[in-house]
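Q: Sequence in, structure out?
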Amino acid sequence: MRRREFILFSVVPLAWPVAALAQTVNAVRRIGFLGNWAEKDVEGAKRLAVFKLRLQELGWTEGNNLQIDVRFAYNSGERLREAATELIELAPDGIISTTSTTTNALMNATGNIPIVAAVSGDPVALGFTKSLSHPTRNITGFTTFNDILAAKRFEMLQEIVPKMRTAALMWVPINPQQVLLEAQTKEAARTLGIELLSLPIKAANDISPALAMAQNKQASAIIVAADPLTVANGRAIIDECISMKMLAIHTFASETKLGALMSYGIDVLESYRRTAEYADRILKGTKVAVLPFQEPSRFTLAINLQTARAIGVKVPSTLLALADEVIE
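A: Exactly. Output:
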Protein backbone atom coordinates (compact mmCIF):
# COMPACT_ATOMS: atom_id res chain seq x y z
CA MET A 1 0.00 0.00 0.00
CA ARG A 2 1.31 3.44 -0.91
CA ARG A 3 1.97 5.88 1.93
CA ARG A 4 -0.81 8.32 0.79
CA GLU A 5 -3.40 5.51 0.77
CA PHE A 6 -2.28 4.36 4.22
CA ILE A 7 -2.68 7.82 5.70
CA LEU A 8 -6.14 8.20 4.14
CA PHE A 9 -7.49 4.95 5.54
CA SER A 10 -5.80 5.32 8.90
CA VAL A 11 -7.62 8.59 9.71
CA VAL A 12 -11.06 7.80 8.24
CA PRO A 13 -13.36 5.24 9.92
CA LEU A 14 -13.98 2.30 7.64
CA ALA A 15 -17.78 2.54 7.94
CA TRP A 16 -17.82 6.23 6.89
CA PRO A 17 -16.13 6.74 3.46
CA VAL A 18 -18.93 5.58 1.14
CA ALA A 19 -21.62 7.75 2.76
CA ALA A 20 -19.29 10.72 3.12
CA LEU A 21 -18.18 10.59 -0.47
CA ALA A 22 -21.79 10.33 -1.61
CA GLN A 23 -22.66 13.46 0.39
CA THR A 24 -19.75 15.33 -1.18
CA VAL A 25 -20.64 14.32 -4.73
CA ASN A 26 -24.36 14.97 -4.28
CA ALA A 27 -24.02 18.16 -2.22
CA VAL A 28 -26.31 20.95 -3.36
CA ARG A 29 -24.27 23.81 -4.79
CA ARG A 30 -25.43 27.40 -4.68
CA ILE A 31 -25.12 30.25 -7.15
CA GLY A 32 -26.40 33.81 -7.04
CA PHE A 33 -27.84 35.79 -9.95
CA LEU A 34 -28.06 39.59 -9.78
CA GLY A 35 -30.25 41.22 -12.42
CA ASN A 36 -30.29 45.00 -12.63
CA TRP A 37 -33.76 44.92 -14.16
CA ALA A 38 -37.26 44.49 -12.70
CA GLU A 39 -38.48 41.01 -11.81
CA LYS A 40 -41.15 41.05 -14.54
CA ASP A 41 -38.86 42.43 -17.26
CA VAL A 42 -39.50 40.26 -20.34
CA GLU A 43 -36.01 40.40 -21.85
CA GLY A 44 -34.40 39.85 -18.46
CA ALA A 45 -36.58 36.77 -17.95
CA LYS A 46 -35.40 35.36 -21.30
CA ARG A 47 -31.76 35.78 -20.29
CA LEU A 48 -32.29 34.08 -16.94
CA ALA A 49 -34.18 31.22 -18.64
CA VAL A 50 -31.38 30.67 -21.17
CA PHE A 51 -28.83 30.65 -18.35
CA LYS A 52 -30.82 28.07 -16.37
CA LEU A 53 -31.44 25.89 -19.42
CA ARG A 54 -27.74 25.71 -20.27
CA LEU A 55 -26.89 24.80 -16.67
CA GLN A 56 -29.49 22.03 -16.84
CA GLU A 57 -27.89 20.73 -20.05
CA LEU A 58 -24.60 20.62 -18.15
CA GLY A 59 -26.11 18.49 -15.40
CA TRP A 60 -27.28 21.05 -12.86
CA THR A 61 -30.93 20.82 -11.78
CA GLU A 62 -32.61 23.25 -9.40
CA GLY A 63 -34.02 21.48 -6.38
CA ASN A 64 -31.67 18.56 -6.93
CA ASN A 65 -27.99 19.49 -6.98
CA LEU A 66 -28.27 23.25 -7.45
CA GLN A 67 -29.92 26.22 -5.80
CA ILE A 68 -30.09 29.52 -7.72
CA ASP A 69 -30.73 32.61 -5.63
CA VAL A 70 -32.04 35.41 -7.86
CA ARG A 71 -32.22 39.06 -6.86
CA PHE A 72 -33.45 42.04 -8.91
CA ALA A 73 -32.17 45.61 -8.48
CA TYR A 74 -34.96 47.34 -10.45
CA ASN A 75 -32.36 49.74 -11.91
CA SER A 76 -32.13 51.38 -8.47
CA GLY A 77 -28.78 52.15 -6.87
CA GLU A 78 -30.12 51.64 -3.36
CA ARG A 79 -31.82 48.35 -4.21
CA LEU A 80 -28.71 47.21 -6.06
CA ARG A 81 -26.56 47.59 -2.96
CA GLU A 82 -29.15 45.76 -0.86
CA ALA A 83 -29.47 42.92 -3.38
CA ALA A 84 -25.69 42.52 -3.66
CA THR A 85 -25.41 42.33 0.13
CA GLU A 86 -28.23 39.77 0.34
CA LEU A 87 -26.52 37.47 -2.16
CA ILE A 88 -23.11 37.75 -0.53
CA GLU A 89 -24.58 36.91 2.88
CA LEU A 90 -25.88 33.65 1.39
CA ALA A 91 -22.23 32.67 0.69
CA PRO A 92 -22.88 31.12 -2.74
CA ASP A 93 -20.22 29.29 -4.73
CA GLY A 94 -20.41 32.08 -7.31
CA ILE A 95 -22.50 35.05 -8.43
CA ILE A 96 -23.66 35.94 -11.95
CA SER A 97 -23.54 39.65 -12.73
CA THR A 98 -25.69 41.01 -15.56
CA THR A 99 -24.31 44.51 -16.19
CA SER A 100 -21.15 46.46 -15.44
CA THR A 101 -23.20 48.31 -12.81
CA THR A 102 -23.97 45.09 -10.94
CA THR A 103 -20.36 43.89 -11.35
CA ASN A 104 -19.09 47.12 -9.84
CA ALA A 105 -21.45 46.77 -6.86
CA LEU A 106 -20.45 43.15 -6.27
CA MET A 107 -16.76 43.93 -6.66
CA ASN A 108 -17.04 46.58 -3.95
CA ALA A 109 -18.85 44.14 -1.66
CA THR A 110 -16.73 40.98 -1.93
CA GLY A 111 -13.24 40.04 -2.96
CA ASN A 112 -13.67 36.32 -2.35
CA ILE A 113 -16.81 34.98 -4.04
CA PRO A 114 -16.26 34.29 -7.77
CA ILE A 115 -18.20 36.67 -10.03
CA VAL A 116 -19.03 35.94 -13.68
CA ALA A 117 -20.02 39.00 -15.70
CA ALA A 118 -22.46 37.98 -18.43
CA VAL A 119 -21.98 41.37 -20.13
CA SER A 120 -19.08 43.73 -19.50
CA GLY A 121 -17.42 46.72 -21.09
CA ASP A 122 -13.61 46.82 -21.15
CA PRO A 123 -12.80 44.93 -17.90
CA VAL A 124 -9.35 46.51 -17.60
CA ALA A 125 -10.58 50.06 -18.05
CA LEU A 126 -13.43 49.37 -15.60
CA GLY A 127 -11.03 48.08 -12.97
CA PHE A 128 -12.37 44.52 -12.89
CA THR A 129 -8.97 43.02 -13.73
CA LYS A 130 -5.47 43.95 -14.82
CA SER A 131 -5.34 41.17 -17.39
CA LEU A 132 -7.93 39.71 -19.74
CA SER A 133 -6.18 36.37 -20.13
CA HIS A 134 -5.45 35.91 -16.42
CA PRO A 135 -8.07 37.63 -14.21
CA THR A 136 -6.38 39.26 -11.23
CA ARG A 137 -9.42 39.64 -8.98
CA ASN A 138 -12.45 37.45 -8.28
CA ILE A 139 -14.13 38.49 -11.56
CA THR A 140 -14.23 37.02 -15.06
CA GLY A 141 -16.80 36.97 -17.86
CA PHE A 142 -17.69 38.22 -21.31
CA THR A 143 -16.85 41.55 -22.90
CA THR A 144 -18.63 43.80 -25.39
CA PHE A 145 -15.69 45.97 -26.53
CA ASN A 146 -17.64 49.16 -27.17
CA ASP A 147 -14.84 50.84 -29.17
CA ILE A 148 -15.36 48.31 -31.97
CA LEU A 149 -19.14 48.63 -31.76
CA ALA A 150 -19.07 52.44 -31.78
CA ALA A 151 -17.09 52.64 -35.02
CA LYS A 152 -19.20 49.98 -36.77
CA ARG A 153 -22.48 51.66 -35.80
CA PHE A 154 -21.34 54.91 -37.39
CA GLU A 155 -20.31 53.05 -40.53
CA MET A 156 -23.78 51.53 -40.79
CA LEU A 157 -25.56 54.82 -40.16
CA GLN A 158 -23.42 56.48 -42.83
CA GLU A 159 -24.59 53.85 -45.31
CA ILE A 160 -28.06 55.39 -44.90
CA VAL A 161 -26.97 59.02 -44.36
CA PRO A 162 -23.65 59.46 -46.19
CA LYS A 163 -23.42 63.18 -45.38
CA MET A 164 -24.19 62.82 -41.67
CA ARG A 165 -22.77 65.74 -39.72
CA THR A 166 -24.38 65.33 -36.30
CA ALA A 167 -25.40 62.22 -34.37
CA ALA A 168 -26.70 61.74 -30.84
CA LEU A 169 -26.00 59.16 -28.14
CA MET A 170 -28.55 58.32 -25.44
CA TRP A 171 -26.75 56.71 -22.50
CA VAL A 172 -27.03 56.08 -18.75
CA PRO A 173 -24.18 57.62 -16.71
CA ILE A 174 -24.79 55.51 -13.60
CA ASN A 175 -23.63 52.50 -15.65
CA PRO A 176 -19.78 52.49 -15.71
CA GLN A 177 -19.80 50.55 -18.97
CA GLN A 178 -21.74 53.37 -20.61
CA VAL A 179 -19.35 56.01 -19.32
CA LEU A 180 -16.71 54.18 -21.33
CA LEU A 181 -19.07 53.79 -24.28
CA GLU A 182 -19.73 57.53 -24.36
CA ALA A 183 -16.00 58.30 -24.49
CA GLN A 184 -15.40 55.65 -27.16
CA THR A 185 -18.34 56.86 -29.24
CA LYS A 186 -17.05 60.43 -29.06
CA GLU A 187 -13.67 59.26 -30.30
CA ALA A 188 -15.22 57.28 -33.15
CA ALA A 189 -17.32 60.33 -34.13
CA ARG A 190 -14.27 62.62 -34.00
CA THR A 191 -12.33 60.28 -36.29
CA LEU A 192 -15.16 60.40 -38.84
CA GLY A 193 -15.65 64.16 -38.56
CA ILE A 194 -19.09 63.79 -36.94
CA GLU A 195 -20.29 65.99 -34.09
CA LEU A 196 -21.68 63.86 -31.26
CA LEU A 197 -24.53 65.17 -29.15
CA SER A 198 -24.31 63.47 -25.73
CA LEU A 199 -27.68 62.77 -24.12
CA PRO A 200 -27.26 61.28 -20.63
CA ILE A 201 -30.45 60.07 -18.94
CA LYS A 202 -31.09 59.01 -15.35
CA ALA A 203 -34.78 58.05 -15.40
CA ALA A 204 -37.62 57.28 -17.80
CA ASN A 205 -38.90 60.87 -17.72
CA ASP A 206 -35.55 62.03 -19.17
CA ILE A 207 -36.16 60.16 -22.44
CA SER A 208 -38.59 62.52 -24.20
CA PRO A 209 -36.54 65.67 -23.44
CA ALA A 210 -33.40 63.90 -24.69
CA LEU A 211 -35.05 62.93 -27.97
CA ALA A 212 -36.45 66.44 -28.36
CA MET A 213 -32.91 67.79 -27.90
CA ALA A 214 -31.64 65.48 -30.65
CA GLN A 215 -34.37 66.71 -32.97
CA ASN A 216 -33.76 70.39 -32.12
CA LYS A 217 -30.04 70.00 -32.77
CA GLN A 218 -30.87 68.35 -36.11
CA ALA A 219 -29.11 65.11 -35.34
CA SER A 220 -29.26 62.80 -38.37
CA ALA A 221 -29.43 59.71 -36.17
CA ILE A 222 -29.37 58.55 -32.57
CA ILE A 223 -27.51 55.67 -30.97
CA VAL A 224 -29.48 54.20 -28.06
CA ALA A 225 -27.05 52.53 -25.68
CA ALA A 226 -28.28 49.32 -24.06
CA ASP A 227 -28.96 49.58 -20.34
CA PRO A 228 -31.83 48.14 -18.27
CA LEU A 229 -33.30 51.66 -18.27
CA THR A 230 -33.32 52.05 -22.07
CA VAL A 231 -34.31 48.43 -22.73
CA ALA A 232 -37.21 48.59 -20.25
CA ASN A 233 -38.42 51.77 -21.97
CA GLY A 234 -37.60 50.50 -25.46
CA ARG A 235 -41.18 50.65 -26.72
CA ALA A 236 -41.50 54.35 -25.78
CA ILE A 237 -38.11 55.23 -27.32
CA ILE A 238 -38.91 53.39 -30.54
CA ASP A 239 -42.37 54.92 -30.91
CA GLU A 240 -41.07 58.42 -30.31
CA CYS A 241 -38.22 58.00 -32.79
CA ILE A 242 -40.70 56.80 -35.41
CA SER A 243 -43.01 59.76 -34.78
CA MET A 244 -40.02 62.11 -35.17
CA LYS A 245 -38.83 60.17 -38.23
CA MET A 246 -35.50 59.86 -36.45
CA LEU A 247 -33.01 57.18 -37.51
CA ALA A 248 -32.03 55.11 -34.48
CA ILE A 249 -29.67 52.23 -33.94
CA HIS A 250 -30.00 50.06 -30.84
CA THR A 251 -27.95 47.14 -29.48
CA PHE A 252 -30.09 44.00 -29.38
CA ALA A 253 -32.00 42.21 -32.13
CA SER A 254 -34.97 41.99 -29.75
CA GLU A 255 -35.24 45.79 -29.95
CA THR A 256 -35.41 45.67 -33.74
CA LYS A 257 -38.16 43.06 -33.52
CA LEU A 258 -39.96 45.48 -31.22
CA GLY A 259 -39.82 48.14 -33.94
CA ALA A 260 -36.41 49.82 -33.82
CA LEU A 261 -34.99 50.69 -37.24
CA MET A 262 -31.83 48.66 -36.68
CA SER A 263 -29.56 47.15 -34.07
CA TYR A 264 -25.96 46.06 -33.93
CA GLY A 265 -24.38 44.37 -30.95
CA ILE A 266 -23.63 41.15 -29.18
CA ASP A 267 -25.88 38.12 -29.25
CA VAL A 268 -26.90 38.62 -25.62
CA LEU A 269 -28.61 35.24 -25.21
CA GLU A 270 -25.47 33.50 -26.45
CA SER A 271 -23.54 35.44 -23.81
CA TYR A 272 -25.80 34.01 -21.10
CA ARG A 273 -25.30 30.49 -22.45
CA ARG A 274 -21.54 30.98 -22.24
CA THR A 275 -21.93 32.46 -18.76
CA ALA A 276 -23.64 29.25 -17.64
CA GLU A 277 -20.64 27.30 -18.95
CA TYR A 278 -18.30 29.39 -16.80
CA ALA A 279 -20.65 28.93 -13.83
CA ASP A 280 -20.49 25.17 -14.41
CA ARG A 281 -16.70 25.24 -14.25
CA ILE A 282 -16.70 27.33 -11.08
CA LEU A 283 -19.20 24.99 -9.43
CA LYS A 284 -16.81 22.14 -10.27
CA GLY A 285 -13.92 23.92 -8.58
CA THR A 286 -12.19 25.88 -11.34
CA LYS A 287 -10.55 29.09 -10.11
CA VAL A 288 -11.40 32.46 -11.66
CA ALA A 289 -7.72 33.12 -12.40
CA VAL A 290 -7.70 30.43 -15.10
CA LEU A 291 -10.96 31.55 -16.72
CA PRO A 292 -10.02 34.38 -19.10
CA PHE A 293 -12.35 37.19 -20.06
CA GLN A 294 -13.71 36.32 -23.49
CA GLU A 295 -14.71 38.45 -26.46
CA PRO A 296 -18.15 38.13 -28.09
CA SER A 297 -18.53 35.04 -30.25
CA ARG A 298 -20.27 37.23 -32.83
CA PHE A 299 -22.06 40.51 -33.43
CA THR A 300 -25.50 40.62 -35.01
CA LEU A 301 -27.09 43.20 -37.31
CA ALA A 302 -30.88 43.37 -37.55
CA ILE A 303 -32.89 45.76 -39.74
CA ASN A 304 -36.61 46.54 -39.64
CA LEU A 305 -37.82 47.55 -43.11
CA GLN A 306 -41.32 48.31 -41.80
CA THR A 307 -39.82 51.04 -39.62
CA ALA A 308 -37.62 52.22 -42.49
CA ARG A 309 -40.73 52.79 -44.59
CA ALA A 310 -42.52 54.49 -41.68
CA ILE A 311 -39.76 57.08 -41.25
CA GLY A 312 -39.14 57.47 -44.96
CA VAL A 313 -35.62 56.12 -45.37
CA LYS A 314 -34.21 53.67 -47.87
CA VAL A 315 -31.83 51.04 -46.53
CA PRO A 316 -29.10 50.37 -49.11
CA SER A 317 -28.82 46.84 -50.48
CA THR A 318 -25.18 46.76 -49.34
CA LEU A 319 -26.31 47.12 -45.73
CA LEU A 320 -29.16 44.63 -46.13
CA ALA A 321 -26.65 42.09 -47.43
CA LEU A 322 -24.75 42.33 -44.14
CA ALA A 323 -27.81 41.83 -41.96
CA ASP A 324 -28.31 38.67 -39.93
CA GLU A 325 -32.04 39.36 -39.76
CA VAL A 326 -34.30 41.56 -41.88
CA ILE A 327 -37.87 42.23 -40.79
CA GLU A 328 -39.97 42.90 -43.88
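DSSP finds 14 helices and twelve strands in the chain.
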